[in-house]
Design a protein that fits this description.
Blueprint (H helix, E strand, L loop, with lengths): L27 E4 L7 E6 L2 E6 L1 E3 L2 E10 L5 E4 L7 E6 L5 E3 L2 E4 L4 E5 L4 E3 L4 E3 L4 E4 L3 E4 L4 E3 L14 E5 L11 E4 L5 E4 L4 E4 L5 E3 L4 E6 L2 E4 L2 E4 L3 E6 L5 E7 L2 E5 L9 E4 L3 E3 L7 E12 L3 E6 L7 E13 L10 E6 L9 E12 L3 E6 L8 E12 L1 E4 L2 E4 L1 E6 L10 E11 L3 E6 L8 E12 L10 E6 L10 E11 L3 E6 L8 E12 L1 E3 L4 E3 L1 E6 L10 E11 L3 E6 L8 E11 L3 E6 L6 E4 L2 E5 L2 E6 L8 E4 L2 E5 L3 E6 L9 E12 L4 E3 L9 E10 L1 E3 L2 H8 L15 E4 L12 E7 L17 H4 L33 E2 L6 E6 L5 E5 L13 E4 L5 E6 L17
Parallel strand pairs: 3-6, 5-7, 6-9, 7-10, 8-11, 9-12, 10-13, 11-17, 13-21, 17-22, 20-23, 21-24, 22-27, 23-28, 24-29, 27-29, 28-30, 29-31, 30-32, 31-33, 32-34, 33-35, 34-38, 35-39, 38-40, 39-41, 40-42, 41-43, 42-44, 43-45, 44-48, 45-49, 48-50, 49-51, 50-52, 51-53, 51-54, 52-55, 53-56, 54-57, ...
Antiparallel strand pairs: 1-5, 2-3, 4-5, 14-15, 14-16, 16-25, 18-19, 25-26, 36-37, 46-47, 64-66, 65-69, 66-67, 68-69
């Protein structure tokens, strides 16, 4: 599967915002009288200086009737420097509208709770030395059981010196907590393609110092072009319902929030190019927790590692759905979730974790972890209990940007790629969307694992008709690292209309292994017209023409494998390395309408192993083709029933000057080979020695072994290019060299039972007895009857000679006969050494015993007809 990588980095942010209220905001920082020592406010122009409040140890408590800051205004908490935590509450009924600056002295953490709601305008800023936690909770709970309550301020007059342990949301009749809104002008991000890094021109918006926490916890959380920044720190967005309790845990310099005691959530939305950024020397962490989480219109969550420290975790949790949709207003910036390692960075990137019921990526939205430096890219893990859907692309200039899950190592990077893991109920990838772990650098690409309990469906190609929808692990052009392994496990897998699942290499590194396990079925169907060539649906382990690495192996385990309508299952190396091995284990294999299973190589390898009780080909093929190397790939088939119809082929072809044709081995013990309608089995070579064909079967129907001389006569030509059994109307088995040298002809060995079903047939009388004596008048005597027994001996199906129930000989099973065609393809017959030393005896009649069972018999030669030996009980 070819990938479009770089163009998705061409970004520019949008610059729009949304006003939630048309009413002018007036300065309203009004203290209440609920504390032992009440807060005071001194107004100096547009600056509100907040003093007083009640101190308990290193905790400072403020209480306000209202708290709002108009545009270009400031609120200054004038605390002493030894204060570690400032707790402020709003006990009145008004929303906090903050469009100015909040400042505090020293390194104090600032907590603001207002159960009525909080709006941060596009001019809102923070200038504090510690963390900032804003919430619409009703109270802050402490370890000693005391609550600092905004809804019941008189309940606990004694304040505490303890650290807070959580945010308590009171129950209400509306079943909705008040919301928090952050407005802004958008993120204004872009990418330097030459250096493969983000140009961060985004406004910082609401920001806390390095290694601190910025947390917004309430009802619905909405960022409308708003920007949140915590360099190397932690940003928390939590949306919970009434009655919830969110834990607070201090860890070093940050506050970590926990939602273990929350029963239900509300919604979180980032839109109009909003952004959340924890980039820095080590990259920070983000936790987003809600019911529905939506990132749209060019919005982004970022963690960029620029130094020697490693990034943290970007975690999105949603009980129902996570959605990333669409580009920004200018059409150049996709909604995305990104963890990145800069070119000069040595620290690892942040891991990305998405846990939800449903994940949707649409219209070019992307989730990416990547490295451009020495640090390892972060891993990407998706756990969606219901479904994961990646749909459509976004047009950008002359290309299409895919909706995608990517883990990438970029050119010149030395860090390894992280792993990409998806666990879900169902996975749908369509209209050019992609899931991939491409390696473009010097280190190995990440492994990709997809587990879907119900089904996986990959459909279609991108509108540019160049790139497929699909799942891939690859080593890209100019890379020196190996591609990662790809593992897919599901109940049902469907790949159609040009979609592909692949493990490939286009560079110096080797491709990884592709393993697919589908307990029910795998269906690969369809071929579509591409811009440059047709694009078949496929399962591929491939090395492209400019690669020097080996191709990967492809292993398939399923209940039923169906390949049809031009689709393919392929191991291939078009470069100088070896192709991998294709192994299929299935209850049934069905190839219809030019479906193909292939192993192609220039440098050896490319063998195929099929194990299935039932294999059916109709106008389809199982082939290995060798253009170079010492020999072509072998085809080994183990089955009980193998049928070829309508010009189907099982072939090992060799076209290189010193390339021997591959071998074909059929292990059909207790089974049958049926070839009809010009269906051939060949192990031919154009310029070198033909291969070997070995068949063990209970019986072979329709296929005839032929040597080169026979083909010349039947085709009436000595032209080597025309000596091909497909030009006959018969079904043939050949192992020849088209050069005509008898020493270069291949070998055909056939082991079947000792009875020839076409020889020694005995004509039996139609009438066993006089029908006028045994058949009532109502039964027409001229209606034919037949009795057929099929079995190992190839017994004749139309007995018609009178027989006797006595003087009979029962026929035992007989041994095998071996057919072998020598190097000059002269077919010979010989009896296997383990056969019993007895003559072949053919049935000449049949009788019914006292229990009504039919017994095949051989009559003594002197027996004459006895008309009373058999009685027909009824008309057919």
């Amino acid at each position: 599967m070819k990938l479009r990588l770089c163009p998705f980095w061409l970004f520019n942010g949008s610059t729009v915002f949304f006003l939630y209220s048309s009413n002018p905001i007036t300065a309203q920082i009004v203290p209440d009288a609920t504390l032992p020592i009440n807060s005071t406010v001194i107004q100096q122009g547009n600056i509100s200086i907040i003093e007083g409040g009640t101190t308990a140890g290193t905790n400072l408590f403020h209480s306000f009737k209202s708290f709002s800051i108009p545009t270009d205004s400031s609120a200054v908490f004038n605390n002493v420097n030894n204060i570690q935590n400032i707790f402020s509450r709003v006990t009145g009924s008004s929303i906090s509208n903050i469009d100015g600056l909040i400042r505090a002295n020293g390194t104090a953490n600032l907590f603001l709770i207002n159960p009525n709601g909080i709006i941060f305008g596009q001019n809102a800023q923070l200038n504090i030395g510690g963390s900032f936690i804003a919430s619409t909770a009703s109270s802050i709970r402490f370890a000693d059981g005391i609550e600092f309550s905004a809804t019941n301020p008189q309940n606990s007059p004694l304040l505490t010196i303890n650290v807070p342990i959580g945010l308590q949301f009171a129950a209400n009749n509306q079943n909705q907590n008040a919301s928090i809104i952050v407005q802004g002008i958008g993120n204004n991000l872009s990418i330097n393609i030459a250096q493969e890094n983000i140009i961060n021109n985004r406004p910082i918006g609401l920001a806390v110092p390095s290694n601190k926490t910025l947390a917004l916890v309430g009802g619905d959380i909405t960022l409308v072009g708003g920007n949140l920044t915590a360099e190397n720190g932690l940003i928390e967005l939590g949306s919970v319902t009434p009655g919830s309790f969110v834990t607070l845990t201090p860890i070093n310099t940050i506050w970590q929030l926990g939602y273990e005691k929350v029963k239900s959530f509300q919604n979180i939305s980032l839109k109009q190019a909003a952004s959340v950024d924890v980039s820095g020397s080590g990259g920070g962490s983000v936790q987003v927790q809600g019911r529905h989480v939506t990132i749209s219109e060019g919005s982004a969550i970022l963690s960029v590692t620029v130094g020697s420290n490693s990034g943290g975790t970007l975690k999105i949790g949603a009980t129902e759905s996570v959605e990333l949709r669409n580009f920004g207003k200018d059409g150049k910036f996709p909604s995305r979730l990104t963890s990145q390692v800069e070119p000069k960075a040595t620290g690892n990137g942040a891991d990305v974790i998405i846990e939800t019921g449903q994940l949707l990526l649409q219209n070019g939205a992307q989730v990416i972890t990547l490295t451009s430096g020495a640090g390892k890219s972060g891993s990407l893990t998706v756990k969606a209990s219901d479904s994961v859907r990646l749909i459509a692309t976004w047009p950008l200039g002359s290309t299409d940007i895919a909706s995608a899950l990517y883990v990438v190592t970029y050119p010149n990077s030395t860090g390894e790629g992280g792993n990409l893991t998806i666990e879900t109920g169902s996975l749908i990838i369509q209209d050019g969307a992609q899931i991939s772990t491409p390696a473009l650098g010097q280190a190995k690409g990440g492994n990709l694992t997809v587990r879907a309990t119900n089904f996986i469906e990959a459909v279609g190609i991108q509108p540019n008709k160049i790139f497929s929808s699909g799942i891939g692990a690859s080593a890209q052009p100019n890379s020196t690292g190996d591609g990662g392994d790809l593992i897919i496990e599901t109940k049902r897998l469907t790949v159609r209309d040009g979609a592909q699942i692949s493990s490939d290499t286009l560079g110096e590194g080797k491709a990884g292994t592709l393993t697919i396990k589908a307990t029910d079925s795998i269906e690969v169907t369809g071929i579509v017209a591409g811009k440059e060539h047709d694009i078949p649906s496929g399962l591929l382990a491939k090395a492209y023409s400019k690669s020097t690495g080996d191709g990967g192996d492809l292993k398939i385990e399923t209940g039923q494998l169906i390949v049809r309508n031009g689709a393919t299952v392929t191991v291939q190396n078009d470069g100088i390395g070896k192709a991998g091995t294709l192994r299929v284990f299935a209850e049934q294999v069905k190839l219809f309408n030019q479906g193909s299973v292939k192993g192609d190589t220039n440098g050896g390898g490319g063998s195929i192993e099929l194990k299935s009780p039932k294999i059916i080909l109709r106008n389809s093929s199982i082939t290995t083709n060798a253009k170079g190397g010492e020999s072509g790939g072998d085809i080994n088939i183990e089955a009980r029933f193998l049928q070829l119809r309508d010009r189907s082929r099982i072939t090992t072809n060799a076209s290189g000057s010193n390339t021997t044709g591959g071998n074909i081995n059929f292990n059909l013990n207790n089974g049958f080979l049926i070839a009809q309608e010009n269906s051939d089995i060949t192990a031919n070579a154009e310029q070198s020695r033909g291969g070997k064909i070995a068949i063990e079967a209970e019986a072979i129907f329709g296929a005839v072994p032929r040597n080169r001389d026979e083909l010349q006569v039947l085709l009436n030509t000595k032209n080597a290019n025309l000596i091909d059994p497909k030009n006959l109307f018969t079904s043939d088995i050949t192992a020849i060299s088209q050069q005509g040298d008898p020493q270069l002809q291949g070998i055909i060995t056939i082991n079947t039972p000792d009875i020839d079903p076409n020889s020694g047939l005995v004509e039996l009388s139609v009438n066993f007895v006089d029908p006028t004596q045994l058949i009532v008048t109502g039964c027409p005597a001229n209606r034919g009857n037949s009795f057929t027994v099929t079995g190992r001996g190839g017994l004749p199906p139309l007995p018609n000679e009178p027989i006797r129930p006595n003087n009979t000989v029962l026929v035992d099973w007989v041994g095998d006969i071996q057919q072998e065609t020598s190097r000059n393809s002269e077919v010979q017959r010989s009896i296997s050494s383990n056969q019993k030393n007895m003559g072949i005896v053919e049935a000449t009649g049949w009788v019914r015993d006292e229990e009504g069972k039919i017994i095949l018999i051989v009559s003594a030669p002197s027996i004459t007809t006895n008309s009373n030996s058999f009685t027909i009980s009824s008309c057919p």
